[in-house]
Amino acid sequence: MRIADQWQDFEILDTSSGEKLERWGNTILIRPDPQVIWRPEKGPEWQKADARYNRSSAGGGSWQIYRSHPQFWTIGYRDLKFKISPTGFKHTGLFPEQAVNWDFSMNAIKNAGRKISVLNLFAYTGAASVACSAAGADVCHVDASKGMVAWAKENALLNGITNIRFIVDDCIKFVEREIRRGRRYDVIIMDPPSYGRGPGGEGWKLEDELYGLLTLCINVLSDDPLFFMLNSYTTGLSAGCMQHMLGCTVGEKFGGKVDADEIGLPVGTTGLNLPCGSTAIWHREEIRK
Questions:
Q1: Which of 138, 168, 220, 282 could form a disulfide with 250, with the two C-beta atoms 3.0–4.6 Å apart?
Q2: Is the CB of residue 265 less than 8 Å from the CB of residue 96?
Q3: pTM of the full structure
Q4: CA atoms of 86 and 104, how far apart (whole Å)
């Protein structure tokens, strides 16, 4: 497991009974996590939470406020800054475990010896877009949610970045148009949803659609791509499965190597690590994590 253990402004304080106790800067939140199936007794630090997200049996959920805290605030990772705000669907606008992938991306881009173009699909609030741009890449950020793209623009401005190309669009439709336009990218980063609806209301299930998505995206890679990063939070899609898919699509055409593993975060009280999904990365042999 690759562990995002370089944070100063974020930490998981404890985990128990389907929940995690997290510190985001000066704010402490309790959020549900399906991976937390262990049930040790919760200590007194849980009483310090400013808010807790409670799921509803009817779907969704809401925040229970214990102490007054800002509606939004900023935290930093290395030289990067991000806006944090608890949303109605439990998220805060950032996945801290992805810091290991920001580090990989920035290192690869800085050491490429050439200008790198990045396509970030299902790009959410733009942490990866900001990291790649800060490393010197030209970035195209695509997400179907207008609100998430607006948030990503805020994150870019927090970091003094003004040259990211932001696109509100269905990712598959956008890639199809880029193929017709003849546009190519040296890097593709994608974090597709586990479930969802397409632009015509059609159902989306990652396990069924991923292979077709990867074969489509090969057509917007440059002749000398640097890396292709695939993230997933789908528990039924293992790191090994993702590795195989990238190997028989991107690897089949370009050679290179595919590394894949779980990514996670350390838990303060136990010293153990919380699994937070998986990442598979196709890359040229000379790139090292």
A1: 282
A2: yes
A3: 0.94
A4: 27
Query: Tokens 């990712």 sit at which residue?
Result: 171
Q: What are the φ and ψ backbone dihedral angles of 211, each rounded to 5 degrees?
A: -60, -45
Report the alpha-carbon distance of residue 82 to residue 272 in Å, rounded: 26
CA separation for the pair 74, 9 (Å, rounded):
9
DSSP 251: I
Q: What is the pLDDT along the chain (289 residues), one digit of tens a residue?
A: 999 999 999 999 999 999 999 999 999 999 999 999 999 999 999 999 999 999 988 778 999 999 998 999 999 999 999 999 999 889 999 999 999 999 999 999 999 999 999 999 999 999 999 999 999 999 999 999 999 999 999 999 999 999 999 999 999 999 999 999 999 999 999 998 876 665 566 666 777 789 999 999 999 999 999 999 999 987 778 999 999 999 999 999 999 999 999 999 999 999 999 999 999 999 987 765 4
What is the spatial distance between Cα 214 and Cα 211, in angstroms, rounded to a whole number?
5
The SS3 call for residue 115 is: coil
Is 147:169 a contact under the CB 8 Å cutoff? no
Q: In Å, how far are 100, 132, 218 from 106, measured between CA atoms?
A: 10, 6, 22
List all residues 6 or more positions away from 157 whose beta carbon is below 8 Å from its beta carbon: none
- Coil, helix or strand at residue 176: helix
Q: Three-state DSSP class for 102?
A: helix
Distances (CA, A) of 273 to 1, 36, 115, 232, 258: 9, 11, 36, 18, 24
Are the CB atoms for 238 and 278 separated by under 8 Å? yes
R_g over Cα of the chain: 19
Which region holds residue 206: left if phi is over 0, alpha if psi is between -120 and 50, else beta? alpha
